[in-house]
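Subject: for your reference before the review

Hello V.,

The reviewers asked for a structural picture of the protein, and I figured it would be easier to keep everything in one thread rather than splitting it across files. Below is the amino acid sequence we used in the manuscript, unchanged from the supplementary table.
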Amino acid sequence: MHFDHFEAIHASRDLGLRLSPADAGPVDVSVHPPFTDLRSVQTVIEAEGIPVALGAQNTAVEDSGAFTGEVSPLMLAKLHVQYVIVGHSERRQLFGESDEVVSAKLRAVLRNGMTPIVCVGESLAEREAGLTHDRLAGQVEAALGGLAPEAVGGLVVAYEPIWAIGTGQAATPDDAQEACAWIREVVGKAVGAEPAGALRVQYGGSVTPDNTAELLACEDVDGALVGGASLDAARFVAIVKAAGSVAR
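And here is what came back from the structure prediction:
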């Protein structure tokens, strides 16, 4: 919940001045402003040819109806939103979103021709209790269960260890690789090796320009879900460039 629409316009233009198509070329980049900024950011991105896709932070389950305060996935698609985050740890923890709600939101995003970024992750207590694998498998299976293999292969799953978000305590590359490989293994058992290999698995948790390349060099870490560092255009572009250096 950062930046009003005036600040978002400024931040988008700052990003556009710093991020060249060559920098973004090897990787897919998306920005996910609050709902009130989406139209403003969409206009800047499209008018100035900034090489990023527009994303949203959340969505309603239903396309329309008497759901006061919700934002429809159909409305997001009309704004040329391409990616929607579903099941972020803050939505799960602060707003009580269950695995069933996350699954329904994922399907709403797909139904409207957008790509969901499905967040999964364990708390510090779960990690210390040795429940990381169980927690990740449960979240992944609940979110993706029943989807066709080809649909799964086009998704993005973001591993965000709750214990590392906003704490400055990033997971080590070994931690990230182990968790992302496990997620891919769970998906492979459910729908097969080919869609599991095509699935993009991100790491998100105190991502910075200094640790991006090391994290993304891991075999099963395909990208980064960037939090606080994305609020500063210079830092965000440095992360994009670091990711691009690995992709090349």
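For the response letter, the relevant points are probably these. The radius of gyration is 17 Å. The chain is about 50% helix and 10% strand.

Happy to draft the paragraph if you're swamped.

O.
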